[in-house]
Design a protein that fits this description.
alpha/beta, 2 domains, Rossmann fold, 43% helix, 317 residues, homodimer, four-stranded parallel sheet, 10 strands
């Protein structure tokens, strides 16, 4: 892995690069427990998630030689689509390692974007080993989903966009958190804002790492979560270094809270939000993080499985 | 009813008034049968539909005396919320006549916005008579859902916004059509664009009126449609006068085509669109209207009944 350090300047450059190809995603008003705040609807990106930001910034910084050799990524589905979308646009070959139980919609979308998908067993196989083996066999650059300086800078572009749209620095940004790529990027992109990472119960690898001051690995018997996008085996040192002592303590949400947030987004925002994309909204609605009129809540993904989404919205909590 | 004639100048003024209180709704890229076109997501308005435009323009043009006497509107639900939202913001009392079988979400939202809801039986009672009786008893100004010059001008503001966002006049605007308020407004707001009204099968009161050159009333045995927002008893002379000879011939869509469009919006745009709000998209996807890179497809509403929406997206057509 590279020694490059992500910087605030890098986030600003990433935001310029992203703005050149993608219109800003809407910042929409939302009433949370009688307080008017804002949602940043990155679920409306072309691939349905914020992951397009980091993937684009990473791939557009590859050298001509690196571009020619292609890229390999590991992803439960949204980073996969971000890499596939960016690779197609830049004429780069992309191979994506995805769990066999990734939502069908994410597998299908990744393939439709022209990437080759290699499946691995979850739990069982180590996805990073599968990717390393592919690179040993075929060559290519690994585009890590969160532990990569360019990816972190790219994700941070959401903060620059949101501040532009809000007309001032957000008081706080509440962000769904898997490996910590977005949260780390936001600390750089929004230096004046409190950053609140929100993780699923039992999968708070970032929150636990910030509290311990060291990488913490997911328990082998970690509970199931509906947030398929937020199940990293662990965060990475590059993310922890940016988050520790800078981000607010981690917050966790239950499946029931996530489903309630999906229903809220359906009825009040008319947006389709996937479970992992609704975690930050869930924390805000449950009163687990403070919300004021300058608060920005990230809706990070909208690639919802139709049957699961139907069951969630048909349920009257 | 007033003698005022809606004008292109009026639409421009309406667009300025709307822009002062509501940010533009997103214009999002969409791929329709391998052609890249645009959707105008008015389903993301605060009340979940474009109806906020016309209601706002009508109510903000009331005299102080008229404001004091309150307003009465007749609506299946979206105009209701537009009037209620605008009335609350302007400090005007609003009474809304709604069908007893309007979607619960629309009844609840209208009441939550502070309006008084008076129910009528559909079919059976004449909703305009119910409204006229209320006005005779209590006074107040009728805010017609589509047959009103200010309402028409306000709806037309969507065309001004879309052209601004597109950077040029749309080649064509495909619009969901009930009574013809939006379509009539678009003819004024987009003088260089072809305007395509799309109606549910059996409820093409605008298409039939344009073809006949006279008002046509819905048949007593008109088929059921899932497009609850697009079931007017007839269009009005003011709408027909603007549309006849100017709009393209009307197009109709089936319930199955509308549901397919809702699924498309769910999976590809991550947007919740109600049946009546998906009619224009349905016509585009079914190849019933031409689509090119300067085509704008209006998504007019997102107030979907959860159970019905769940059934639609769970279905694999």
């Amino acid at each position: 892995m590279t020694e490059r350090i992500p910087t605030a300047k890098g986030v600003i450059a990433a935001a310029e690069s992203v703005a050149a190809i993608l219109p800003p995603t809407p910042l929409l008003p939302v009433e949370i427990n009688r307080v008017r705040a804002w949602v940043k609807a990155d679920s409306l990106q072309p691939i349905g998630s914020f992951k397009i930001r980091g993937a684009w910034w990473r791939l557009s910084n590859l050298s001509p030689q690196e571009r020619a050799a292609g890229v390999v990524a590991v992803s439960s589905g949204n980073h996969a689509q971000g890499v596939a979308w960016s690779a197609r646009r830049l004429g780069i070959t992309a191979t994506i390692v995805m769990p066999h139980d990734a939502p069908q919609v994410k597998l299908a979308n990744t393939r439709a974007l022209g990437a080759e998908v290699v499946l691995y067993q979850r739990p069982g196989e180590d996805r990073d080993e599968v990717a390393a083996r592919l690179i040993a066999e075929r060559g290519g650059t690994l585009v890590h989903a969160f532990g990569d300086p360019w990816v972190i800078e790219g994700q941070g572009s959401a903060a620059i966009e949101a501040a532009d749209q809000l007309g001032r620095a957000p008081s706080r940004i509440i962000a769904c958190c898997g490996g910590g790529g977005l949260a780390a990027g936001l600390t750089l992109g929004a230096p004046e804002s409190a950053i609140h990472p929100v993780e699923p119960e039992g999968w708070d690898m970032v929150g636990q790492a910030m509290a311990a001051g060291a990488i913490v690995h997911a328990a082998p018997d970690a509970p199931k979560t509906i947030c398929d996008a937020l199940q990293p085996p662990a965060t990475k040192p590059i993310n922890l270094a940016l988050l520790k002592g800078r981000a607010e303590p981690g917050v966790t949400v239950s499946d029931a809270e996530v489903r309630a947030a999906q229903r809220f987004a359906f009825a009040n925002l008319r947006l389709v939000v996937e479970p992992g994309g609704a975690a930050a909204l869930a924390a805000a609605l449950a009163g687990k993080v403070p919300v004021d009129e300058n608060t920005v809540i990230m809706l990070t993904g909208g690639n919802a499985d139709p049957a699961a989404f139907a069951a969630t919205i048909a349920e009257t909590a």
